[in-house]
Design brief:
By secondary structure, this protein is of the alpha+beta class. It is built from 7 helices and 15 strands. Strands 1, 2, 3, 4, 12, 13, 14 and 15 form an 8-stranded antiparallel β-sheet that branches. The chain has a 4-stranded antiparallel β-sheet with strand order 7-6-5-11, with no helix packed on it.
Length: about 300
């Protein structure tokens, strides 16, 4: 065949860059550099979700937000570099004969495959088994958590086959017993076999009061509670509120949970104990906080480790 009959379709730098914006590595595929495209795709995907989700549960709690945000930044950097690389490589291809598969249909198929199928499945696996973000919608866990906080929950916690690590004082996420489609977040107070007593503002575990200090603050009562080596503050915004008396032994395979905002929390005082099988994770760290009712962005809460 006469070489003059072979179509020459120089690569358009702007199109290579634009395709890269849709999907990392897609600009390289447009340039016919499949191997190069694979490395950019793998780099951006691995740093974006799976790699961090895999290692974060084994890191100290105060590293969670830094590592997660750092990984997202790295993924975005790789994505941007892939776009620039596609543009620069396209500028060099003033003479180019595209393969039969290089067309709009291929590019659209890859975009849909990744964004509609692969990425959602990967994200679902990470959220189900490794780490999951949540937004706090209410004030039931004040002062530890406020409405508008965004947190990470460790999904390795209480997972099937994992070594038991649950402790009294942990802040956990779980399936709400009265609505299986709703997630709740509370603090673990009692483990299986514990005897729980609540009289007024005093909570006792196995006949040992948790209260170590109380203080008045703007009409509320701030109570410092402690069990063994864990300590946390709770608030009674309406000290005169009528609170149910509690005197029970936590059944096997169950936990007793309370909200830290003791007069504004729907918890085990009202819906009973929570099956261990319904515990879905442990809250680790606040990575972002926004509440327009209290001034918008709460920068002082970003990175707050949850105890």
């Amino acid at each position: 065949m006469d070489s003059s009959s072979i179509p020459n379709r120089p690569r358009k730098a702007w199109l290579a860059f634009l395709l890269g914006l849709f999907l990392p590595g897609l600009g390289q595929i447009y340039n016919g550099q499949v191997n190069r495209a694979a490395w950019f795709m793998l780099g951006s995907w691995l740093f974006g979700i799976p790699l961090v989700g895999l290692f974060t549960p084994y890191l100290p709690d105060d590293w969670t937000a830094t590592v997660m945000l750092g990984s997202i930044g790295m993924a975005l950097l790789i994505w941007f570099v892939s776009c620039v690389d596609a543009l620069l490589q396209a500028l060099k291809l003033s003479t180019y004969t595209p393969a039969s598969w290089q067309g709009a249909g291929t590019y659209l198929f890859l975009i849909l495959l990744v964004t509609v199928c692969l990425f959602p499945l990967l994200s679902q696996q990470v959220r189900k088994h490794w780490i999951e973000p949540f937004r706090i919608p209410s004030a039931s866990m004040e002062p530890a958590l406020i409405a508008g906080d965004f947190i990470y929950a460790d999904k390795h916690y209480n997972c099937l086959g994992c070594e038991p690590t649950m402790q009294r004082g942990d802040i956990i996420t779980f399936t709400y017993p009265n609505n299986r489609n709703m997630g709740y977040i509370k603090r673990v107070i009692g483990l299986p076999g514990d005897q729980i007593k609540i009289r007024g503002q005093t909570v006792s575990i196995n006949n040992k009061p948790l209260t170590i200090q109380t203080a008045q603050q703007a009409g509320s009562v701030i109570v410092q509670e402690r069990y063994e080596n864990k300590q946390w503050p709770v608030i009674w915004k309406n000290p005169r509120a009528v609170i149910p008396l509690v005197d029970l032994t936590v059944p096997a395979g169950q936990v007793f949970v309370l909200g830290d905002n003791r007069t504004n929390s729907n918890d085990s005082r009202y819906f009973g104990t929570v099956p261990l099988a319904d515990v879905t994770g442990r809250a680790r760290q606040v990575w972002f906080s926004y509440n327009r009712d209290v001034g918008g962005l709460q920068w002082g809460r970003v990175g707050l480790v949850l105890h």
